[in-house]
TrEMBL record:
Keyword flag Transmembrane: yes
Keywords: Membrane, Transmembrane, Transmembrane helix
Membrane spanning residue stretches: 21-47, 85-105
Name of the protein: RDD family protein
Native organism: Marinilabilia salmonicolor
Amino acid sequence: MDDKQLLWEKVPLSERIMAGLVDIVIAVLISLFPKIGWMFGVIYLLAKDSLSFLNGQSFGKKIFNLRTIALPHYASLSGWPEKSIIRGLVQVIPVLNIIDLYYLITKKVRIADKWAETRVIRNQDWEAKGSSM
């Protein structure tokens, strides 16, 4: 394994789950707005890792100082919104999100990360490598 592959393995499972829970709570709060809130909640879940105003981090990842990067470029998802949507689709489809959680717990990687070719790493590791690895 090279140095880049080791970066994403350092993120504890508990931090990833807590960041995900923060994002789910935010999506639920957004969806409480009358009539169209549910659409914005779903949009947030789909695009949360590619939001440029958050520098390519979701609110949950920002709180826990994590970042999702696009492989093989090791770049922020703010430049790769389609990868964020693939990851988000797995989260909003009921059967897939259960399978995804199982893979995260047992294999330490989400199927969404495999399908979207992404990894979750510590933000400071990404910044230390010059943001473009």
